[in-house]
Amino acid sequence: MHDFYKERGLEVPKPAVPQPVPSSKGKTKKVLESVFRIPPELDMSFPKELFKEKGGAEKKETVIFIRDKNSHGQEVSGYIDYAHRLKTEDFEVYFAGKRRLLPRPTDMSFYNWDSHIALCNSSPNYQVIADHPEGLLFKYKRDRKILNVDPKANPGDNSTRIPIQTELYTHAVLYDHVSRRKT
Questions:
Q1: What is the Cα 51 distance to its own chain's centre?
Q2: Which spans does this entry mark as compositional bias, Basic and acidic residues (predicted)?
C-alpha cells in the first residue's frame, strides 16, 4: 500500500487511531476512521487529479474490488469503475469517513452473497465480459486491453493488482490499468 502512495508522489497516511464514540447506553465504543480519508490540507480535486493523464499520452484507470457487509448485514462484493463513480457521485462523504464505499447493483459487477443476486453492467470505460472460460474479465474501451481479475492469474498488459490490507473491509483490491493510447 505504501508503494501506491509513493508512486503518485503522496505522503503515506498514518494508521487510523480508534476514536471514542458515545453510545446510547452510556458506554463509549472505539471506532476506526476511514482509510480513504483525504488530509485537510488537500482539497477535493485530489481524487480527480490522481487519475488524470500523466506525461501526455498515458492515462491510469482504476477498478476497485470490495467485499464486505452492507447496512442490512448482507455480504456483498463487486467491481467499481473508480473514474466513472467519481464523475457520477460525490466522493466527499467517503473521504470524510461519513460513509463506506460499497459496490452497488449499477457498478460493473455486483454480487449479494445472501440473496445470490448477480449483476453486470458495462461502464463508459470498461466492457464486462462475464461468459469467458477464464472467468470475469473487463475490456478497457480506450485501448481494448483485457483486465483479468482472477487473483491466481496475471491481471493483463499494462495492469497491476494492488491488494489492500485494511480492517475497514473484508477484502479490498485495486486494479490499475495504464493506457498509452491517445483519445
A1: 13
A2: 1-11
